[in-house]
What does this fold into?
Amino acid sequence: MGRTSESLKGLRVCYFGHYDPSYSRNRVILKALKRAGAYVVEVRNHSRGIRRWWSLLVSGLTARFDIMFIGFPGHTDVPLGWLIASLKRHPLVFDAFLSLYDTAVFDRRNVPPNSLRAKRLFLTDKLACLLATIILLDTESHIRYFVDTFKLPPVKFRRVWVGTDDDVMFPRGAPPSDENFTVFFYGSYIPLHGAEYIVKAAHLLEARKE
It folds into this structure.
């Protein structure tokens, strides 16, 4: 699975699940795969219940691919993707990106730590990672969290930074040479995005100017 961009040429990747292709993480990875020369087959369905699973199963079984790639958020899509990939004897890459358990229980704190729902989220994360051949996360710290929390082998993980869509975000030349500057924050103000630390850093910089 340790492929360079050159060896992706001609590789058939099945991008699978109920992911949103316009979401930044998926948009960046899809563009990266295609620019690296991979042929991407998108198998996607947003329906609810059995209709969604049946559509994904039929489309996945009839698709021709070399690697199954579960797009974000795909934790609950992994078992079905694993079944299809196993029947075809192909590896499965899971872009975990984050832990459902950590997000709901410790970051947003909307699920009690010892509740049945917390246990279900923990098992959902762990099962998805156990079934995947390779798991993608955005930082080394995130990888350590998964390894320690879910007792997983480090060799299964690869770091893929968040990145950005360079058709939207690109250098526009040097800013005006004055003392004022603009900080651009892209996020949704959940604790994980660290808006409070950006504000604290701004106050520190302001204090240095005085």
Observations:
- The beta strands are 12-17, 39-44, 67-70, 92-95, 134-137, 157-159.
- Helices lie at 24-35, 50-62, 78-88, 100-107, 116-131, 140-150, 195-209.
- The first helix runs from residue 24 to 35.
- The radius of gyration is 20 Å.
